[in-house]
Design brief:
Elements: E1 2-6, E2 17-22, E3 34-49, H1 57-63, E4 70-77, H2 86-99, E5 108-111, H3 121-129, H4 138-144, E6 153-161, E7 166-174, E8 187-192, H5 198-211, E9 216-217, E10 227-232, H6 241-261, E11 269-277, H7 280-292, H8 294-301, H9 307-316, E12 327-330, E13 333-337, H10 345-355, E14 359-365, E15 371-378, H11 382-389
Parallel strand pairs: 4-5, 8-10, 9-15, 11-14
Antiparallel strand pairs: 1-6, 2-3, 3-4, 3-10, 6-7, 7-8, 11-15, 12-13, 12-14
Length: 393
C-alpha cells in the first residue's frame, strides 16, 4: 500500500537538488533565459527524445555519453535551439562546459528556441559562471526555460509507503507550440529522490510517455529538441515500483495537460476519447488524428459542434469503422447516433453549450470492439498565427 499526495512547491524542495534561472542576455529586456539543475550527489539519468530525424545538438551530445552514465548538472537555455547547427553545435556545448568554473560530471545541456542559429557561447558562459549552486529557486528556473509559454509549468508529489518511508518527485517544463503526438514534444525535467533502479526508470518513462506526452497535440509539429529528462539522486532510499510508476504517470500527465491548455493562443483543452475500437492501434490512431486535425481545431475555436469534421477525420484515419456503428458525443450530448440524423436545433444548442467551456470531452464510440485511447488537444485560432509569424522577432 502507498499514498500519493500532491504538495505545494517545486523541485527545489527535493533534498539535494538545487536550481535557478538568470538573465544572460539571450532574451530582451533582461528576461530570465538561462537556468540550471544541480545535484550535490551523482544522479542516475534517463531520457526520451523527439522522433524528429533532425535532432538538435544537445540531444546528440547526450547520446555521446556511455550507457548508464551519471550526472550532477543540467544547463538549460532558451531563445536558441542549437538545432541544425552541425558538428559546431556539439563543439559549442563542449566549449561551454570546459569554460565553466566548476568541474561537473557528465554535464547535460538542453536548449529551446529558434532553429538554425549558433549558440551565443560567451553570453552563456558568463551567465553560467555567475550561478550559485546552492540556490533553490525553481520559480526562476521555470521562467528561464519559457519561450512562447504564457505561464510556468510545474508539479510536485510526495509518496508515502507502508513501511513509513517516503520519496518526492516533481517536474518543471516548457511547451506551448510545436507540440505533436510523437513522443516527448517539449522540455521536461523530472527530479526525484526515490531509490529507483535504472531499468525501472527507463521502463517507466517509456510506458507513461504513450498516454501523456505522446498523446497531446497543439499544432501538429514535432520539434528538434523535445526532451523528457528523469534524474534521481536516491537520497530518500525509499522505493516501490507500483507507486513510482503511478506517480510518474501523474507528473507526466500534469505536464502534458498544462501544455495543451497553454497551446499558443489556445482557449480550450479537449480530450478526444475513442472507445470500442476493433484494436488498440485503431483507437490510438483515430484519437491522435482528431487531436491533430486543423479542421477540428478551428471548429473548436469557433465553438461549432460540427460532428461532420469529427466523423470525416475518423474515416480519413483509415481505421476499421462503420457509420452505422459510430456514436459521437460532446460530453454527454449525443450528436450522431449509428447513422441516425438526430442533429436538430435543440441538440445543436446543447452541444454548443458544451463547446463554450474551457475543458470538455469529445467521445467517439466506434462500436466494433473493446479497445480505447484518449488523446488531448486544443483549439487553433488567430493568436497562433500571430505568435508564429513573429517568432524570430
Amino acid at each position: 500500500m502507498f499514498t500519493i499526495l500532491p504538495i505545494k512547491g517545486m523541485i527545489d524542495q527535493i533534498d539535494g537538488f538545487y536550481c535557478d534561472g538568470i538573465s544572460a542576455g539571450l532574451k530582451a529586456n533582461n528576461a530570465l533565459d538561462l537556468g540550471f539543475i544541480y545535484s550535490d550527489t551523482l544522479c542516475d539519468v534517463e531520457a526520451v527524445f523527439t522522433e524528429n530525424r533532425f535532432q538538435a545538438a544537445p540531444l546528440k551530445h547526450y547520446l555521446m555519453y556511455k550507457k548508464d552514465f551519471q550526472t550532477n548538472f543540467v544547463l538549460i537555455n532558451s531563445k536558441n535551439a542549437n538545432a541544425m547547427t552541425g558538428k559546431k553545435g556539439i563543439e559549442d556545448i563542449n566549449s561551454i562546459f570546459s569554460s565553466l568554473n566548476h568541474e561537473f560530471t557528465n554535464p547535460i545541456m538542453s536548449s529551446t528556441g529558434v532553429i538554425g542559429n549558433p549558440l551565443p557561447i560567451q553570453k552563456i558562459v558568463e551567465g553560467a559562471k555567475s550561478f550559485d549552486l546552492k540556490t533553490k529557486n525553481a520559480q526562476n528556473l521555470s521562467k528561464a526555460i519559457m519561450t512562447t509559454d504564457s505561464y510556468a509549468k510545474t508539479t510536485m508529489y510526495e509518496v508515502k509507503l507502508e513501511d513509513g518511508s517516503s520519496f518526492k518527485i516533481g517536474a518543471v517544463s516548457k511547451g506551448a507550440g510545436m507540440i505533436n503526438p510523437n513522443l516527448a514534444t517539449m522540455l521536461c525535467f523530472i527530479c526525484t529522490d526515490a531509490n529507483v533502479p535504472k531499468e525501472d526508470m527507463k521502463e517507466a518513462l517509456k510506458v507513461n510517455s504513450e498516454t501523456t506526452f505522446n498523446a497531446i497535440s497543439v499544432d501538429g509539429d514535432t520539434s528538434t529538441n523535445d526532451t523528457v529528462l528523469l534524474l534521481t539522486n536516491k537520497k530518500s532510499n525509499a522505493y516501490n515500483k507500483e507507486a513510482f510508476f503511478e506517480v510518474l504517470r501523474l507528473v507526466m500527465h500534469d505536464m502534458a495537460m498544462l501544455m495543451v491548455a497553454d497551446g499558443e493562443g489556445a482557449k480550450k483543452a479537449v480530450a478526444f476519447e475513442v472507445k470500442n475500437a476493433a484494436t488498440y492501434e485503431d483507437a490510438q490512431k483515430a484519437a491522435k488524428a482528431l487531436s491533430n486535425s486543423l479542421l477540428v481545431k478551428t471548429a473548436l475555436f469557433g465553438e461549432d459542434p460540427n460532428f461532420g469534421r469529427i466523423a470525416s477525420t475518423i474515416g480519413a484515419s483509415k481505421i476499421a469503422c462503420d457509420e452505422e456503428k459510430l456514436v459521437v458525443s460532446y460530453n454527454n450530448v449525443i450528436v450522431y447516433n449509428k447513422g441516425e440524423l438526430i442533429f436538430n436545433d435543440e441538440i445543436e444548442q446543447e452541444a454548443f453549450k458544451v463547446l463554450q467551456n474551457d475543458k470538455f470531452k469529445i467521445v467517439c464510440d466506434i462500436g466494433l470492439g473493446k479497445e480505447s485511447f484518449t488523446a488531448y488537444g486544443c483549439d487553433l485560432g488567430y493568436k497562433y498565427v500571430e505568435i508564429n509569424a513573429d517568432y524570430r522577432t
